[in-house]
């Protein structure tokens, strides 16, 4: 691995040539209910976007549409140029709030799922994920079953399973929502570092403003009924390893306040 | 490194109860507590039964005492019951096996195809409404006094709960998990093989346990309708000659057979899906 300490500049400036995710005037209706309306956004390749908003604002729906699990009623969703559901699904890995690990598979077996789905034999797939398990700080736990792990570790295995799919686009739907605040802070820090080491295009849905700022270099604020994009804010914060330092930073506080006020208006 | 710190701290609260000797003692205590009450009840019933003949003078052609039944069992074991038990057990096991194969196949087919599901579900439920007692003689006419009609009756009695429970298990998978699997590039077959089938195993075994208790009843029905050997045949012969003790021996053997099958299924289940119990305990 390359040294993780070599801090990278915010992605916004780096990859402007390659578009990762592109939504143009997207609308999604379920019957007569409009879940998402007039949503347009763009994220460069290997950029990190956070979407915040009150519950029911359609942020999870946007994620499903990007992922290729569902199609918009109107508008275009493009993921690295792909527009059909099948092609989008091939480029995206999706991870929901609950870890949804398979209880009959141990840590390595769960992590190896995507590889096995690609046709790798069970044993070879296990071998291949061992390196990733090690990098995720889970070595020694390969043969533990989900019921033997704490909530934070289960979620980490779930991350591992998502990453092992080798997709360029990672979609997280409130991945830390079910965790206690200490575990959550730890995993946020850990995910930041993991993404620094192996950059991917990520979209993170959350209703935690701090989390949105920590993990996104651009934050999209949404309003509910119908789900609309209220504003997109670029996050330019000093590069630092420490989550605590970042949160203490005056600019961070200012951005947090700005986001909170936007969310207040929308509610 | 904060990550490593939480790793070790969470590592310590991993349950290690399986290796703990005090928990084993507790398990032993719990087992004794579970076995004592039913054993006590059985003992009381046994004593009352014996007293019915010995003390209250109930005639033996109505209710033979346990000692008379035991005597009859040992007297007739060699020439009658040993072969009858083998015959009936064979019918039960083959019928049960057929029910598993057919039941699981039907469950998979109906799970995978909504069209088949809507087409065949009424027929499936209807098949359960037809009384087996009526079917058995018809099968005996078609197949004669062979093994076949008994196997069919056992399978008919057993397959339904296997189908219903297996289908329920296959459909019980969290829809979000199916979505996750799709984004992990799983084909329909991969989802079935890696998620739905393992997830369905506990319900499948529930179905098996239910049908295990029916299986011997099915074999006896089959034999009642026409046979030359087997516990059902022995019962019919004994009844007409008022040899009630023989009937009771057959009943006890059949009961033992059902319980053994039930226990065998439970043991296999414990080996095949050990996670199911652990998840429940969480």
For this structure, the CATH topology of chain B is: MetI-like fold
| Largest interface by Cβ-Cβ < 8 Å | A-B, 42 and 32 residues
| Portion in strands of chain A | 15-25%
Beta fraction of chain B? under 5%
The succession of helices and strands of chain A, N to C, reads HEEEHEHEHHHHEHEHEEHH
Number of helices of chain A: 11
Going by CATH, what is the homologous superfamily of chain B? MetI-like
Q: How are the secondary structure elements laid out?
A:
The complex is a heterodimer of chains A (267) and B (282).
Chain A lengths: L10 H4 L4 E12 L2 E12 L3 E5 L6 H9 L6 E6 L5 H7 E4 L11 H5 L1 H5 L4 H14 L15 H14 L4 E5 L7 H17 L3 E6 L2 H7 L2 E6 L4 E7 L8 H6 L1 H17 L1
Parallel strand pairs in A: 3-7, 3-8, 5-6, 6-7
Antiparallel strand pairs in A: 1-2, 1-4, 8-9
Chain B lengths: L1 H11 L8 H34 L11 H47 L1 H16 L2 H12 L3 H25 L3 H9 L4 H38 L5 H10 L3 H29 L1 H8 L1
Helix pairs in contact in B: 3-4, 3-6, 3-8, 3-9, 3-10, 5-6, 5-8, 6-8, 8-9, 8-10, 9-10
Structure description:
Chain B: Belongs to the binding-protein-dependent transport system permease family. Chain B: It is a multi-pass membrane protein. Chain B: InterPro entries: MetI-like (IPR000515), MetI-like_sf (IPR035906). Chain B: This is Putative hydroxymethylpyrimidine transport system permease protein. Chain B: It is found in: Cell membrane. Chain A is of the alpha/beta class and about 270 residues long. Chain A has a domain at about 20-100 and about 170-265: 3-Layer(aba) Sandwich (Rossmann fold). Chain A has 11 helices and 9 strands. A 6-stranded mixed beta sheet of chain A has the order 5-6-7-3-8-9, with helices on both faces. In chain A, strands 2-1-4 form a 3-stranded antiparallel beta sheet, with helices on one face. In chain A, helix 8 links the parallel strand 6 (about 170-175) and strand 7. Chain A is globular. The N and C termini of chain A lie far apart (about 45 Å). Mean pLDDT of chain A is about 85; it is low at about 1-15. In chain B, about 85% of the residues lie in helices and about 0% in strands. The longest helix of chain B has about 45 residues, at about 65-110. Chain B starts with a helix and ends with a helix. The model of chain B is unreliable at about 1-15 (pLDDT under 50). Chain B has helices at about 1-10, 20-55, 65-110, 115-130, 130-145, 145-170, 175-185, 190-225, 230-240, 245-270, 275-280. Chain B contains 11 helices and no strands. Chain B has a single domain (about 80-280), classed as MetI-like (MetI-like fold). In chain B, helix 3 crosses helix 10 and helix 8 (about 190-225) packs parallel to helix 9. With about 280 residues, chain B is mainly α. Classes of the chains: A alpha/beta (about 270), B mainly alpha (about 280). At the A-B interface, strand 5, helix 5, helix 7 and helix 8 of A face helix 1, helix 7, helix 8 and helix 11 of B.
